[in-house]
């Protein structure tokens, strides 16, 4: 089975029309996921600063989209904005609520991709990306759907059969429901995923109330849902849904809560390989640990709010978001890349901070002290194994926190000493 992934980072293009090309990937990407925090350097860094976070999906140069937010550090009360576009894979928002750079996908190449600046950037934010490809990725679909008016089921047509369950779907949104491209106040947004025959779901949602003084921020992260959105004003979760079935025409969402706003959601559906969506807890020590019992991951994405898993429909104070990924060495070695953006709750002067971790043991999950902006927890994958992955907290967390993950990979059957496949042994036992 041919499934390949690559995790890397690239600085955005700068002047209008300028391009940045990523090369050297040993496969042609079929699905591309981007994320950023606003940091502009190419070395690991953390600290108090304005966050300009976001996510992007792409299937092709015409099928792509992005969500972005900003929250200003050291402002008197909260100063924050959000946006959503269907004409790019990345964009930046200034503290004045204006566009400050748009990066679009100019081409997907045999060994990477090219970004082009459709709007000039004042600086060069670093963009992380997780690329998925290989011959056994048979179908990819990027699309947009709207939240239904009632808490019901909603079937999303992807144009291909997903009933085998050998699939993964990623979601992102901002919650205003206004026409795209959008720019609005607040920094509310969400990111989620679902995958696998056993249909795991994980979601993160968070944000800050613009102009609130003291600041009013929250976040929410748990298994069992892939969609969740934050209310306006920031106080609660008022949308919840999960992927409940794989269909011959796509996938089914089951809603337990909706709002009156017909919110926009982007999705990226991928068919092929094996998928596992689940969660783990970070550790308060630096002892290596394993997560297994499924297949050999070729890559894994990690998502967290830097807190214990939230109870259903129960967010917690402070907006913290950690998103990272690890590859199993198809293009380099067990690379780990992650970012974090945190917006502290209930302070008169906004405490906003970000982390950039890249390369090797740079971390697939990172935690921020909301008061100081210092990194005080970091996990990285040391190896992908035949039945899962091994990881370690290079910097132990102060408390055990929930980290959701989604893996894509292949089933590997080891052999015993006489070279008889283990699968054959199992077959004989069943007889």
Walk me through what this model shows.
- This protein has one helix spanning about 420-430; strands at about 5-10, 20, 30-35, 45-50, 50-60, 65-70, 80-85, 90-95, 100-110, 110-120, 125-135, 140-145, 155, 165-175, 180-185, 190-195, 200-210, 215-225, 225-230, 235-245, 250-255, 265-270, 275-280, 290, 295-305, 315, 320-325, 335-345, 350-355, 365-370, 375-385, 390-395, 400-410.
- The chain is mostly beta strands and about 425 residues long.
- The chain has one domain.
- The strands form 6 sheets. It has a 7-stranded antiparallel β-sheet, with no helix packed on it. It has a 7-stranded antiparallel β-sheet with strand order 4-29-28-27-25-33-23, with no helix packed on it.
- Strand 19 (about 225-230) and strand 20 form a beta hairpin.
For this entry, give a set of tags.
globular, mainly beta, 54% strand, 431 residues, 7-stranded antiparallel beta sheet, single chain
Can you tell me the residue ranges where pLDDT is under 50 for at least 5 consecutive residues? 415-431
Total of helices: 1
The major β-sheet equals: 7 strands, antiparallel
Radius of gyration, in angstroms, nearest whole number: 20 Å
Mean pLDDT: 92
Q: Please tell me the total number of domains.
A: 1
* Derived structural class: mainly beta
> Globular, elongated, flat, extended or rod-shaped: what is the shape?
globular
Number of strands: 33
Distance between the termini: 28 Å
With strands numbered from the N-terminus, the spatial order across the biggest sheet is 1-11-3-5-6-7-15
Q: Summarize the amount of helix as a percent range.
A: under 10%
Strand content: over 45%
């Amino acid at each position: 089975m041919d499934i390949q992934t690559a995790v890397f980072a690239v600085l955005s293009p700068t002047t209008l029309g300028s391009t940045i090309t990523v090369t050297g990937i040993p496969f042609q990407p079929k699905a591309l996921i981007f994320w950023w925090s606003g940091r502009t350097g190419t070395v690991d860094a953390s600290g108090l600063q304005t966050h300009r976070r976001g996510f992007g999906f792409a299937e092709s140069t015409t099928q792509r989209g992005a969500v972005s937010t900003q929250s200003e550090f050291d402002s008197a009360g909260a100063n924050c904005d959000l946006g959503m576009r269907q004409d790019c894979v990345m964009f930046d928002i200034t503290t004045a609520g204006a566009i400050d750079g748009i990066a679009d996908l100019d081409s997907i190449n045999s060994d990477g991709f090219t970004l082009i600046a459709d709007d000039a950037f004042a600086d060069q934010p670093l963009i992380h990306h997780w690329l998925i490809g290989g011959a056994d990725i048979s179908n990819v679909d990027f699309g947009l759907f709207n939240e239904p008016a009632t808490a019901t089921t909603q079937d999303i047509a992807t144009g291909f059969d997903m009933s085998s369950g050998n699939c993964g779907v990623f979601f992102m949104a901002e919650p205003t429901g206004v026409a795209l491209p959008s720019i609005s106040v607040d920094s509310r947004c969400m990111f989620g995923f679902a995958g696998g025959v056993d249909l795991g779901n994980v979601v993160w949602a968070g944000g800050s109330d613009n102009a609130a003084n003291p600041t009013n921020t929250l976040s929410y992260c748990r298994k069992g849902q892939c969609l969740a959105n934050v209310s306006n004003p920031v106080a609660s979760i008022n949308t919840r849904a999960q992927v409940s079935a794989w269909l011959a025409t796509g996938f089914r969402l089951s809603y337990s809560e909706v709002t009156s706003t017909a919110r926009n959601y982007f999705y990226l559906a991928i068919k092929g390989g094996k998928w596992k969506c689940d969660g783990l807890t970070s550790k308060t020590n630096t002892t290596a640990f394993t997560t297994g019992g499924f297949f050999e991951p070729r890559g894994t994405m990690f998502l967290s709010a830097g807190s214990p898993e939230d109870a259903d429909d129960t967010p917690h104070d402070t907006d913290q978001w950690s998103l990272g990924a690890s590859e199993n060495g198809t293009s380099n070695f067990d690379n780990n890349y992650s970012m974090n953006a945190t917006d502290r709750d209930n302070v008169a002067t906004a405490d906003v901070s970000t982390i950039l971790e890249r390369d090797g043991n740079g971390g697939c999950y990172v935690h921020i002290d909301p008061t100081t902006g210092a990194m005080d927890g970091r996990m990285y994958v040391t190896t992908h194994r035949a039945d899962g992955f091994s990881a370690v907290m290079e910097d132990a967390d102060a408390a055990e926190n929930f980290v959701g993950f989604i893996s894509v990979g292949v089933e590997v059957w080891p052999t015993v000493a006489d070279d008889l496949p283990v699968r054959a042994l199992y077959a004989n036992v069943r007889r």
